[in-house]
Amino acid sequence: MDHKPEDDIEKTRIINAGGFVNEDGRVNGGLNLSRAFGDHSYKKNADLPLRDQMITALPDVKVEALQPSDEFLVVACDGIWNSLNSQQVVDFIRERLKQGKSCVEISSELCDHCLAPTTAGDGTGCDNMTVIITTITH
């Protein structure tokens, strides 16, 4: 589940809190995400509860029944998702699990894979990166 500022629900909350989303999908021209811990400068509207601020830490909670085909769960921050799409991450993890690698090894390799070779460019691969991978045992 992605939380991008340009998504209708996210954009509506941002605008209602007094912010805007620019053409690059950035909140007030800065952050390219709409949910985060910290980033307190985007949470200063005293008339609104925390859940309704431009940036909120409120999670989406979704209950899913496990399927026999489910292999793993991956949770990552924008440093990963801005470099690879969901299917690319799934393919990356699946390939390495088949090689017998641990979730810790795969997490490290995924961060290395998303890391920019230099800081020149648009900033992709220069963000902090967090990823948690857990396998599902049936």
UniProtKB/TrEMBL annotation:
Q: Which Gene3D superfamilies match?
A: PPM-type phosphatase domain (3.60.40.10)
Claim: Metal-binding is one of the keywords in the record: yes
Q: Which InterPro entries does the entry mention?
A: PP2C (IPR015655), PPM-type-like_dom_sf (IPR036457), PPM-type_phosphatase-like_dom (IPR001932)
Into which EC class is this enzyme placed?
hydrolase
List its EC numbers: 3.1.3.16
Output the SUPFAM superfamilies linked to this UniProt entry.
PP2C-like (SSF81606)
Please list the residue ranges annotated as the PPM-type phosphatase domain: 1-136
Give the protein's cofactors: Mn(2+)
Q: Which family does it belong to?
A: Belongs to the PP2C family.
Protein name per the record: protein-serine/threonine phosphatase
Source species of the chain: Trichostrongylus colubriformis (Black scour worm)
For this protein's source organism, the top of the classification is:
Eukaryota, Metazoa, Ecdysozoa, Nematoda, Chromadorea
